[in-house]
Write a structure and sequence with these properties.
The protein is α/β, with parallel strands linked by helices. It has 2 domains: about 180 residues, 3-Layer(aba) Sandwich (D-Maltodextrin-Binding Protein, domain 2); about 100 residues, D-Maltodextrin-Binding Protein, domain 2, CATH 3.40.190.120. It is built from 14 helices and 10 strands. It has a 5-stranded mixed beta sheet. Strands 3-10-4 form a 3-stranded antiparallel beta sheet, sandwiched between helices. Strand 1, helix 2 and strand 2 form a beta-alpha-beta unit. It is globular.
C-alpha cells in the first residue's frame, strides 16, 4: 500500500491538464447532498487549508454524482469524494466488477485518460448500498439477508433516492438479482428523508448507505447482500489535474488521508451530524485532532 500511496502522490503532482478558463485564487471542493459527503468534503477542505495555507471554497450539497462530475469537467469544482463502484458504473458506464483493486485501477485509468482527473487511494472505508428495514420487522420475521426478505417485499413499500432508481448498479439490477417486487412503485425522495419515512412507517424498506449513522442509532437492520450484487464502493478523493498543476501542494496534503478512516469512524461522524446535530466542520476538526492530523 505504501507504493500505491507514493505512486498516487507522484501522479497528483505530475499529471497535467489542458487549458481551462480563468479560475479563482483558491481551490474549490464540492460534495453531494447528503451528510457523509458534506463531512468528507469538509475533511478535504480542512486538510488542504491546514497543510497548505490555501483558502478553500466549499460548494456542498450538489445534487448527486452526475452534477458533481459535470462540475468537475466544467472546472466549477476542483475535487470531491466519490465511491469507486459509483464511478465505475454510473459515471464511466463500465460493467460491474466486484474486485476492489481492479475496480480502483480501472476507475483511476479512465478518469485520467478521459477527464484529466486524478483518483487518489481509498480513504480507508467502503460505503456500499444497504437495503434497510426496521429492526422490529427484522426480528419478527427473522430476516438477516435480502434473499430472505424477498418473499415479503410484495407487501412492502420501498423508498429510494433519486439516483438509485435508475442507475445501472441500483434498483433495476437488484430487483432482477433477488426477484424483488414491491407494493407499488418506489417512493423517491431526498436521501436525508429516507430514514424519517422508514421510522414513520411511510415505507418499509429503504435503499440507504452502509455507513449511515441512523442505522445503529434507530435500531434498524441492514440486510446482507448475500448474492454480492453490489460492486465495491471505496471512498476515494477525485482532484482535477489542472488544480494539482496550479497548487501542487494539494497532493501532499491529501496523501496523508489515505487509509485513515474506518467504516466505524465514518458512521460516528455521520451520527455526530445527523443524530447529535453538530456542525460538520466541528465534527471534522475533532476527528482530525483524534487522528493526529
Amino acid at each position: 500500500m505504501k507504493r500505491v500511496f507514493v505512486t498516487v502522490a507522484v501522479t497528483f503532482c505530475a499529471l497535467l491538464a489542458g487549458c481551462s478558463p480563468p479560475r479563482p485564487d483558491r481551490p474549490v471542493i464540492g460534495a453531494k447532498n447528503f451528510t457523509e459527503q458534506v463531512v468528507l468534503g469538509e475533511l478535504l477542505a480542512q486538510e488542504i487549508e491546514v497543510k497548505t495555507n490555501l483558502k478553500v471554497e466549499r460548494r456542498f450539497y450538489l445534487a448527486g454524482s452526475y452534477i458533481c462530475q459535470q462540475a468537475m469537467v466544467a472546472g466549477r469544482i476542483d475535487g470531491y469524494v466519490e465511491y469507486t463502484g459509483t464511478a465505475l458504473t454510473a459515471i464511466l458506464k463500465q460493467p460491474v466488477d466486484r474486485d476492489p483493486m481492479r475496480v480502483w485501477t480501472t476507475v483511476r485509468n479512465l478518469y485520467q485518460s478521459k477527464y484529466h482527473i486524478v483518483v487518489g487511494p481509498s480513504l480507508g472505508f467502503e460505503n456500499t448500498f444497504a437495503m434497510v428495514i426496521r429492526g422490529d420487522d427484522a426480528r419478527r420475521l427473522h430476516l438477516t439477508t435480502l434473499s430472505e426478505a424477498a418473499r415479503y417485499t410484495p407487501q412492502w413499500r420501498l423508498g429510494v433516492g433519486y439516483e438509485f432508481e435508475q442507475r445501472p448498479d441500483g434498483l433495476p439490477g437488484l430487483s432482477v438479482a433477488y426477484g424483488l417486487k414491491f407494493d407499488g412503485p418506489p417512493r423517491t425522495m431526498d436521501l436525508g428523508l429516507l430514514y424519517r419515512a422508514l421510522d414513520a412507517h411511510q415505507v418499509d424498506m429503504i435503499a440507504a448507505n452502509s455507513t449511515d449513522g441512523p442505522i445503529e442509532a434507530l435500531g434498524l437492520t441492514a440486510l446482507a447482500d448475500d448474492k454480492h450484487y453490489f460492486p465495491p464502493y471505496q471512498a476515494v478523493p477525485l482532484i482535477r489535474a489542472e488544480a494539482l498543476q496550479r497548487w501542487p501542494q494539494i497532493a501532499n496534503a491529501l496523501a496523508v488521508l489515505a487509509g485513515e478512516i474506518s467504516a466505524k469512524e465514518m458512521r460516528a461522524m455521520n451520527e455526530g451530524v445527523d443524530g447529535d446535530h453538530r456542525d460538520p466542520a466541528e465534527v471534522v476538526r475533532e476527528f482530525r485532532r483524534e487522528k493526529g492530523l
